[in-house]
Amino acid sequence: MELTTILTTIALGIGFSLSHCIGMCGGFVAACNLKLSKTDRITHFILSLGYHLSRVLAYVILGILFGLFGSAVIFSGFSKGLFIFFAGVILIILSFAIFKRGRLLSCIENQKIISFIMLLLSKFRQKNSTISLLILGFLNGLLPCGVVYYFLAISFGSGSIIEGAAIMAIFGLSTIPVMMGLGGILSAIGVKFKNYINLVSFFIMLGYGIYLLYLGFMVLK
Known about the structure:
Keywords: Membrane, Transmembrane, Transmembrane helix
Protein name: Sulfite exporter TauE/SafE family protein
Order of helices and strands: HHHHHHHHHHH
Transmembrane segments: 6-36, 56-75, 81-99, 131-152, 164-189, 196-220
Number of helices: 11
Pfam families: DsbD_2
InterPro entries: UreH-like_TM_dom
């Protein structure tokens, strides 16, 4: 995996966890924290970490599937260049969709799938076992999300199971520090700062999409 991909994934993971992810998953994380409110600090930390690692596991499994699919369709130099170029186009579209937060993003983040997962979440939220908490984290990772789709497109374009899993793991792990400190971070950051982070993340996403367009074009040339 290229260093550019690793650094971009970490930067976007941190950046979007401060903007998009807090809005998308904040309610689920807050519900998790509420379930753990009566536990001591160490237990709270361990179980909360388990919740988020389970969420990352869902990302990794999706990364493996998309990397596998990418490896199945990328069977020559031409097809590799074509799919890298295609991935670049998808990333550019997603960057604008996430930044503008309009109808395109609503379409991408399918509300019917969200409603179905929310139904499952509500069932497991009522249970107090550790297993139910881990399942909640895993289901959280399956929520339709433009940012997750962005990294899945990169996983697909990599054409590798290992790289697909690694990309999603790096992304997921990069979001954990912010998501675990959700309450304090929400009160500490203002709307202007969130908008600034969102803008910077947009340019990073857009730039990486253009970079993939260039790589794909050079392979096809």
